[in-house]
Write a structure and sequence with these properties.
Strand content: 35-45%
Strand order of the largest sheet: 1-3-7-10-13-16-19-22-25-28-31-34
Helix content: under 10%
Largest sheet: 12 strands, parallel
Shape: elongated
Number of helices: 1
Radius of gyration: 21 Å
Number of strands: 37
Distance between the termini: 37 Å
């Protein structure tokens, strides 16, 4: 069957059936409710950004229909924000929760294999919320901000991903990352709780190339969780940079490698650590640069296998819009390194992260 492109435009005044730019559906909810079946290979939905916001919700945005889903046979259904000329250039379609009154995207178990690209979700009760059974959704270049709850909530097990996404001014940034989830090149900042919250006892999620800073609790908080954290910057969070807990029969563990973990315990309470793992399974930590600047210590070694971590006491680096790397040179604090020469180490990401970008 031939692939079909469908259209959403709140300014359209045609037949309102999604079949063309002139006859576009007037809201994303109309597209969801009237899509009419499982997507065929190559189908996509384009959402035209022309106002700020494009939609102010009058009810929760509910993705709860088996008639709006991708599938394992034909692949993901792309739902894409485009500019006013219907071109995909990174412009985000903006959905507003009307002064924290409504959920800005609530996806249930019947709506899966959807790739959401170029959206801003703001001022709602919760940002995109993927429940159990809808764990194969992907978010790319999306922003969630000023939600009273989590910015992004991924509680469904599957092969879900967040790629190049930003969350700020929410409760938790990225919440309930499940088994096998991948969080890649994302930013979580200025949230009133943890930057990232994990809740899984099985295969660990992967957090790679992310910046997690200025959150009011832990940078990464794991409860009953394993974790692979690689090549991240975790900076100036109020509690531990990374803190994984153990409860009941569940075990923490995984690998924490090549990260820059600096100035956490930002309130200098001498309570929190750069890395704090309460683990019955060993957790490997290595090649990290860690500074606590007034906290309880750099690493709390509770059944950790640690090697070649460079630790120090202060940092002055700041994060700026469009940065792709943060570097540091250490001359005086070899600690875990038996080296005489100065060492320069740099965190890098292949994309410019939207550290302070807003919609």
């Amino acid at each position: 069957m031939a692939a079909t492109t469908y259209y959403v435009d709140p300014t359209a005044s045609g037949a309102n059936d999604g079949s063309s730019q002139a006859d576009a559906w007037e809201s994303l909810q109309e597209a969801i409710d009237n899509f009419g079946g499982m997507a065929d290979k190559g189908d996509k939905i384009l959402c035209r950004h022309s106002n700020t916001p494009d939609e102010t919700l009058a009810a929760n945005l509910e993705v709860d229909s088996a008639n709006f889903t991708g599938n394992m046979t034909y692949g993901y259904l792309p739902v894409i924000g485009v500019n006013s000329s219907w071109e995909e250039d990174g412009s985000r379609y903006i959905i507003d929760g009307d002064s924290n009154t409504y959920d800005t995207l609530n996806s249930t178990s019947t709506a899966d294999y959807i790739h959401w690209k170029h959206f801003t979700f703001r001022n709602g009760v919760v940002g995109p919320d993927f429940s159990s059974g809808s764990g194969n959704n992907i978010m790319t270049n999306c922003i969630s901000h000023d939600q009273t709850g989590a910015g992004f909530n991924f509680s469904g097990n599957g092969l879900g991903k967040a790629i190049g996404c930003l969350v700020y001014n929410c409760d938790t940034g990225f919440a309930n990352l499940p088994v096998n989830f991948m969080m890649l090149f994302c930013v979580s900042r200025d949230n009133s709780s943890a930057g990232v919250y994990l809740y899984t006892a099985n295969s660990p999620p992967v957090i790679y190339g992310c910046v997690i800073f200025d959150n009011a609790a832990k940078g990464i908080h794991g409860y009953r969780s394993k974790l692979f954290a690689l090549n991240n910057v975790i900076h100036n969070n109020a509690h531990d940079g990374i803190g994984l807990n153990i409860s009941d029969a569940y075990q923490s563990g995984g690998a924490i490698l090549f990260n820059r973990i600096t100035n956490n315990d930002s309130g200098e309470t001498s309570t929190y650590y750069g890395i704090d793992i309460g683990a019955s399974d060993p957790c490997v930590t290595g090649y990290n640069y860690i500074e606590t600047d007034g906290g309880a210590g750099n690493i709390k070694t509770d059944n950790l296998f640690t090697f070649l971590n460079l630790t120090a006491s202060t940092t002055t680096d700041e994060l700026n819009v469009g940065d792709t790397e943060f570097g540091y040179t250490d001359d005086d604090n070899p600690e875990d390194f038996d080296l005489d020469a100065s060492r320069t180490t740099t965190w890098r990401t292949p994309i410019a992260l939207p550290v302070h970008e807003t919609d």
